[in-house]
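Please, structure for the following, as tokens.
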Amino acid sequence: MQPAIGTPATGRPRPLDREPSRSSTPGHTRPGIRPLKSALKRTRTPEYGGPVGDGPPLVRGRTPEGIPVQRQRTRSGSRMRVNSTPRWDSDHLIVSLRSTNELHIDGIGDAEVANELSEDILSIWPHGVNQQGFRRGKWKVQFAGNPWTSAGLDAVLAGKMLVRLSVSLARLGYGYLSTVNVSSPWTSPQLVYHAAPPDPEAFVFAMMLSKSGDRLTFLDGPADLTIALGTALREYFPRRITTDRATEDGLHIFEIKRGPTGGMSLLVDRATLTTFVLTWLNRAGFRLSGSVPLGSRSLFSLGPRRETWLFRLKRSARPKDLGRRPSSRQSRQSRGEYEA
């Protein structure tokens, strides 16, 4: 039985007939049929792109035979990470003595520097350390006991640690620049060191002048140097030096005579004594290379801190001359021209 006319047959649907005029491709149009206007439109460049100029000629990747091609390889970590802190090498160190038993050094770029300082300094203090550590360029040490406010033998050992610290920094390539932050009673003074040529033969000793100015103490100074200085002091200030003696723990002590009433007045002014000693040591080949205030100062302690001065042998002065006596001792010592 045949299906009725006008009724679609069952099974696969019949494909739709497309009108020839609906073809959107100009090349596929039949002759005599005009393409749609949409097919004749040019593709517009987005307005934000702007006009495109003539670019450089493309170079193919072929190279002459026998010539290797060197291409720069990119690394995944070559770009700086987001929110990362760039690394920089400091040419200054800041040394501070905190509280009564802490030593802080900021600006160290290598952990090996902290290790060398630890080996050179910490063994001097017999009471040991509570803790120490190096992190992010800062080396912190907390000593057992109170070296910066100690007295007697412990004060001598604390001074020896400061001398050794100055020697170690000089050998590592750091020279003393200045002492800052000395006015505030709440914060510790800071010693600033700057990068300098390493000095493997650095020699340093310490000098302490009492608050009243009647006692001058040298620590680890060369014996010939302190003996000659005592002779010069007695010649320049006759009958005003009452004590000139050396001790077994590396100290050499000079004491100044007081006034006839026995009060606070001295027969030698503190500033005059200081300038004489500084000039004499400078001519002997030693320059002032550090001023270290010791001890804590509270709000009710308005007096000056106990201070240690560090003197370093100049590079121009030869270490082998330390044991040689000057040819004309009295005349040269009176002028402070001791050939150390």
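The longest strand covers residues 286-294. Residues 297-303, 321-340 have pLDDT under 50 and may be disordered.
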